[in-house]
Structure formats: structure tokens, C-alpha cells
Design goal:
Its main location: membrane. By secondary structure, the chain is mainly α. Helices cover 75% and strands 0% of the residues. The protein folds into 2 domains: 1-50 and 69-222, MFS general substrate transporter like domains (Growth Hormone, Chain: A); 269-484, MFS general substrate transporter like domains (Growth Hormone, Chain: A). The longest helix is centred in the first third of the chain and has 30 residues, at 133-162.
Amino acid sequence: MDSGKQITGTLVVAVFTAVLGSLQFGYSLGVINAPQKVIETHYARSLGVWSERSGELPVNGSEAEESRDPGKHPDVTMYWSLSVAIFSIGGMLSSFLVGFVGDLRGRVKGMLMINVLAVAAGLLMGLCRMWKPHIMVILGRFLMGFYCGLVSGLVPMYVGEIAPKAYRGALGALHQLAIVIGILISQVIGLDFILGNDDMWPLLLGLSGAPAVLQSLLLPLCPESPRYLYIQLGKEQEARTSLLRLKGAYDATADLEEMRNEKDKADREPKVSIFSLICSSVYRRQLTVALMMHFSQQFSGINAIFYYSTAIFERAGVSHPVYATIGVGVINTIFTLLSVVLVDKAGRRTLTLVGLGGMCCCAIAMTVGLKLQTDYSWMSYVSMTSIFLFVSFFEIGPGPIPWFIVAELFSQGPRPAAIALAGCCNWTCNFLIAMTFPYIQAWLDSYVFILFAALLLCFTIFTHLRVPETKGKSFEEIAAGFHKG
């Protein structure tokens, strides 16, 4: 039997269990959006700057504005912004530890260990009314961000190492699929008549720790990565057992031979730290490609749409913008599924090029739509259609591919350091966009997406010139391609 073409029950369980972490990441990304007004009111009450009565008392000028909308109070605005942004700060800090955690006790035990963080974060947010909600939520969001920074490296690393070559792209793209499903779930149950209301919002935030509980029960059933067992620990027999569990009964000689070659090479290379990876001329080309893929994912403008889609739809004249935002979530999920199906047939490079080029055109159309909708009412449909298409193109290539291509571009020695660096780059860009987008939007107004269109054009050209196709190649062949240039 061809080992590259088999999908066994154990492999399905292992990949499903791993991507529960990604689902939790997506849920945590999206959950803070819908109940913003409700949470701001609780923050204002807790800070003593607003009460039910102050909403009724006649006050003058700007004070009247603050008393009617507690979110306008500077203290509330500060704590609210911190609740959103601290998630990315947690992710930035922990993404450096991915290699350390993954190598410490293995990929599976690493994922199991960090679930403590997710459960603690869920409890802090779920029980935030017992003390000061603003402090408890910010602590919970920080811990959850710290957890998600580790997950965004460990999940693609583990899945990339256990996936058969023929399905490596499709299984790698499941990390992104789980993230967008998590975002969609958080948007739906965050509606005010479900959990996004005055009574239930702590439960809505607290549920972000729930997948970690299920994952902790399933992880002991998952085999450790055979590549980790053989190449890191030198345990050939355990690696063989793990391969047979993942791929069923087959002749594992070829796979073990590939790992043996990689281990010999890794033993000859010094252990690659993050610092030595940055300084090394040997890996410079791979590293440039890996980091640019992550830059293109974050600076494409997609997060601006995720974070502020409701506001963008309001400007486009949609009467129920929150449902349009959920529509974006549904399209997100459908097109990520399409990417899972296509990525091992069409290839990574092709899908990334199609995605970036399509997003560039949509960003221009969105700008035209937003600019002219006061003159022509039908232009609001142009800007809305552009948003939906923009998201579709993103999920076909630039969304899922950067997460798993980094694991493909590097051999076992530098892989953990490369994944840590790429993850940190991703989280830092995410944080920068979240913090600066409102200011850039105020400065450029309707022209804000022209800035993203220009960046997308640059990323498309870079991908065309520099990014190799990794479909169906072994890790050895990919690395050799870079050294040949």
C-alpha cells in the first residue's frame, strides 16, 4: 500500500484533537466584537463612572454624551482597548516559546501542558463579575493570548510532521479552517438574544476555555510526532510504532530512511536558536519567504475587516450590520474549506498568487464603492460585494498557507526556531494593525483600502518572484531547492 495516500482513524483523531486548539484561537479572536457595548457598560459601573441613574439625569454638553454612552468615557475606552489589544501582546510574547515547549516534552505533551493556561483564562473571564470585571477580563484575555501564541505554532508543527506527504497541504490548512469556524461560532453565540447580553456575557467570554477541556481528554489518545521521536530523541523503534499507528499497516522503511537522512544532517548542523537563525546566511532565503508570507497575511487588510466589519457595514448603509458580519464569517468558512480541497491539487504558490491578486482588485473596488455611495446608492452594494470577495480570496490562499508552509520550508533543526519567529512576526503585525487602523482610517477615510491595495500588489510580485512550490515535495527536496537557488 502507498503510505502517502492513506488516512487512518488515528490520524483523523490526532488532527481533529490538535485543531481544537485552533478553534479556541478563532473563538477568542472573534468573541470580543459583538458584546462591546454591554461590556463597556459593566466596565463603567465597576469604575464608578456610570450608573443607571446617571443615564436619566439631565447633564450638559460632553458630559451628557458620556452619561448616555458609557463607552465614550476615557477610562472605559482605555480599559476596553486594552481588553482587545492585550490578547495580541500575550501572543507576541509566547510565540517565542513555541520551539522550547514543542521540544521540551514533545508536541503532544506540549499541547497538553499549555491547556492549563486556556482553562485558567476561561475561568477568569467567566467569573469576572465576582470582582472587578475590567481587571479580570484583561487578565483572562492576556492569558488566552499567551495560550493562542503557543497554539498557533504547535498545531501547524504537529500536523505538518504527522501528515502524509500527499495530504500535507490539506491537513495543514485545517488549522485556518478551525480558526474561522471558531470566529463564526463566537459571532453567532455573541448575538444579543443568545449570550451577548447583559446577563450572559461572562459565560460567552468564559466559553473560550471549553475546547481545551475536550482537547485534554483526547490528547492522550494521539501518537507523538514520529519525526520528533526519531530526529530529536533518536528513538527509531518508537518512531516506527508511531508511523504504523498514524498510517496503518505498511512498509515504513522509506519514511524512516528519509528521517534518518534528516537526522544525520541535523546532527551535523548545530542546534539552531532564533538568534542564530536570524544571523545565518544558509537559511536567509527561506526565512525571508516565511516572514514575507506572514507579513502578507496580516498587512493585507484582512484584520481591519474582521475587527471593524460591523462599522464598515454601517457606513455602507446595512440596516443590521451584525448579521452582515456573520455573513462574512460564513463565507470565510466556505472558502477555507475550498482551500483545504484545492491546496494539494493547485499548489501553495498558485493559490497564494490568486488570493493576493484578487484581494488587491477587491480593495480598489471597495474604495470606489465607499467613495461614491453618497452619489450613487447602488455603490453600497459594490463595497459590500467587495468585502465578501476580499474575504473569499484571503481564505483561498493568503489565510491558511503561511501557517503551514513555514514547517515545510525548514528541516527539523531550524524548524521550531523558524515557526517561533514567523509566529512572533504574525502576532506583532496583528497588534500593530489593531492599534493603528482606527487612526489610519480617520486620516485616510474612504481611501484606507488603497493603502492595502498597494501593499497587496507588492506582496503579489514578491510571491511570483520568490516563493517556491512545495506541493508533493519532501522536506529534503524543498531545502535543497533553496540551496540551489
